[in-house]
Amino acid sequence: MIFYSTVCSFQVQIPWFFPYLSIYLSIYLSIYLSIYLSIYLSIYLSIYLSIYLSIYLSVFKLKFTRVDVFPQRSKESELCCLITPPPPTPPHPPPPPPPTHTHTHPSFL
C-alpha cells in the first residue's frame, strides 16, 4: 500500500510504515524525555540548591546564628555579660597524703 501526499504540487511517496513509525517515535520520545528530564532536573536542582544554600548561608551567616530566646533582656546586659570575665574558680584542695603503715608484720627469722 502506498500513500501519496501533495506538497507544493509535488507528489511525494510515503512508505506504508511511516504513520506507525511516527506514532511509535512520538510515544517513545515522550516517555524517554519525561524520564530523562525528571532525573536530570532532580539531580541538577539538588546540586544547584545545595551549592546556592551553602554560599548563601556562609555569606549571610550572621542572620542565622543568633536566635533571641529571651527578648525581654536588654542589649546592654548582654554586652556586660559578654565583656565581664567569668568568676574565678576556687583552687582545688590538695590531694590527701598517702597512707602510712602503722602496724608491722612479724618476721619469721
TrEMBL record:
Its domain of life reads Eukaryota
Spans of biased composition, class Pro residues?
84-100
TM segments? 12-33, 39-59
Disordered: where is this region?
83-109
Please provide the record's keywords in A-Z order: Membrane, Transmembrane, Transmembrane helix
Q: What is this protein called?
A: Uncharacterized protein
What species is given as this protein's source?
Answer: Seriola dumerili
